[in-house]
Specification:
This protein is mainly alpha-helical and about 475 residues long. It is built from 18 helices and three strands. The protein binds zinc ion (2 copies).
């Protein structure tokens, strides 16, 4: 069974409206999961457009950007890292759902009824509320959510600061829906619910009037990201704020919100952003005496300790003064610009990898993922100004050259690929014909040049083949 997203039938209008859950049942009802478009994958241009719009509005309204460059890069890095597993595995939320549906469902609601569509909207949002609440109230689930809260700024890039671990726990909270709601309807709403939560990460929108009563809004979600005592464990909503009002976790925005974790991690390094809390749990687990206390370390709140209530003591949360200085990189402006450039180059490889996943071998995918992770780590080291940053960056550049030389990365600018070409005589390729599955025949027009027939390695694209085939000596390289 294919994962959602193999369809391309998302118009620009739909791509925009889906960011705000403004979709009609009639245009988003599908019989099978295979037909469900990958709305999240197609959202990249809208993410970028809205981030640029927020930048402009922030300059106009406040005379400054909505955040800081180092924090922005770290958020974008987390967004990249969180999506890398999907290059190798199908969405756990959808695959586990399908498994339960196929084996344990109690009855089938009709996939093409608009009542099923609206019920799923509510069901997914309800499931998200409880997942999100448990992600803050159970230490081991918090380890897979805290990355999202580690930004000390609050802007649209914060929405992309996602945890790579989160899907391994969130699926549990949606599984009851699989007892009666068809996977194709669920696969639509799980994406809409996620995309809706993008635009609420902004300070540009202050209040939405009566909509604040029903919807989760930027104001409500700002409270959720606050480390002020009044903000802790509040406003877990995804799309509708009604759940917080029903279950007693709602808090309106009043005094100035200071963003981030109650104990900031003070780093821009992506692995620490993602995994530091696991290490904290590990150390706390072994340092806490008694079996039941150890179990409590895992399953009670992050602030729990022996003798304390389940969610810890509110007076132990550091009080905010409004004078907090967010972590800022000591790197020079030139070095920051360098990291932005390297991030942009990495992002183009990242997008190209996602666009051509099917055509790439597992080896190439692994090498590319390693390169992406090394790039993000190196950027983190440079922003953190660590002593080993220069060595790591040198190693990264060497890895880039090696991957490029052996065809695991596609040149961004084909005209610059001459750097890696040899002095062997060139023969212009005039035709490339497909023989069998992976066999290609290159017909050259140069007189006396033998025609070449060779197989494409799994990671090589036709374009790559065309370029390489212009070297008569390339056979040794290929095989
Ligand atoms: Zn949260
Ligand atoms: Zn958020």
């Amino acid at each position: 069974m294919k994962s959602p997203g193999d369809q391309d039938n998302v118009s620009v209008s739909q791509g925009f409206r889906v960011m705000f859950y403004m979709m009609k049942p009639s245009e988003t009802t599908f019989q099978t999961v295979e037909e469900v478009p990958d709305y999240v994958k197609k959202a990249t241009p809208f993410f970028i457009s809205l981030i640029l719009l927020e930048l402009i509005l922030s300059w106009l309204l406040k005379g400054k950007p909505p955040g800081r460059l180092d924090d922005f890069l770290t958020s974008m890095s987390a967004g990249v890292v969180s999506r890398l597993p999907s290059l190798f595995f199908k969405s756990l939320e959808v695959t586990s759902y399908i498994y339960i549906w196929e084996n344990y469902r109690l009855f089938d609601l009709p996939w093409d009824s608009q009542w099923t569509w609206y019920l799923t909207f509510l069901g997914v949002d309800f499931g998200y509320y409880w997942f999100h609440r448990m992600a803050h109230e159970i230490n081991i689930i918090w380890a897979g959510h805290q990355a999202h809260h580690s930004s000390e700024d609050y802007n649209l890039s914060t929405a992309l600061r996602q945890s790579v671990l989160q899907p391994y726990t969130s699926w549990i909270f949606y599984s009851p829906l699989a007892l009666f709601i068809p996977p194709s309807v669920f696969a639509v709403h799980i994406q809409f619910n996620l995309l809706y939560q993008f635009w609420i990460h902004t300070e540009v929108i202050r209040s939405l009037g009566p909509l604040e009563l029903v919807l989760n809004t930027p104001s409500h979600h700002r409270v959720h990201h606050g480390r002020n005592r009044y903000c802790i464990d509040k406003n877990y909503a995804g799309t509708l704020i009604i759940w917080d009002k029903m279950f007693g976790t709602f808090e309106a925005e009043n005094e100035q919100v200071i963003y981030g974790l109650t104990h900031p991690i003070d780093t821009f390094e992506p692995f620490k952003v993602q995994f530091h809390h696991l290490l904290y749990i590990w150390n706390t687990f072994w340092a806490t005496p008694g079996f039941f206390h150890k179990v409590s370390v895992l399953f009670k709140g992050p602030g729990w300790g022996p003798g304390k209530p389940r969610l810890g003591l509110s007076e132990e949360i550091p009080e905010v003064t409004g004078q907090e200085v967010p972590l800022s990189s000591a790197a020079s402006q030139q070095l920051k610009m360098y990291t932005v450039l390297q991030f942009a180059v990495m992002l183009s490889f990242y997008e190209e990898t996602f666009a051509n996943t099917e055509a790439l071998s597992q080896v190439t995918l692994l090498l590319r993922v390693s390169f992406i992770l090394l790039t993000l780590t190196s950027i983190g080291f440079l922003l953190d100004q660590r002593p080993t940053a220069a060595i790591l960056e040198t190693l990264r550049c060497l890895m880039f050259l090696t991957l490029f030389r052996f065809g695991h990365l596609k040149p961004l600018f084909p005209s610059l690929s001459f750097v890696f070409e040899t002095n062997t005589p060139r023969a212009e390729v005039c035709q490339l014909t497909h023989q069998e599955e992976n066999d290609f025949k290159v017909i050259t027009e140069s007189a006396g040049q033998e025609n070449l027939t060779f197989s494409l390695l799994p990671f090589q694209t036709t374009e790559h083949c065309r370029r390489q085939a212009s070297w008569p000596s390339c056979e040794g390289f290929f095989f």
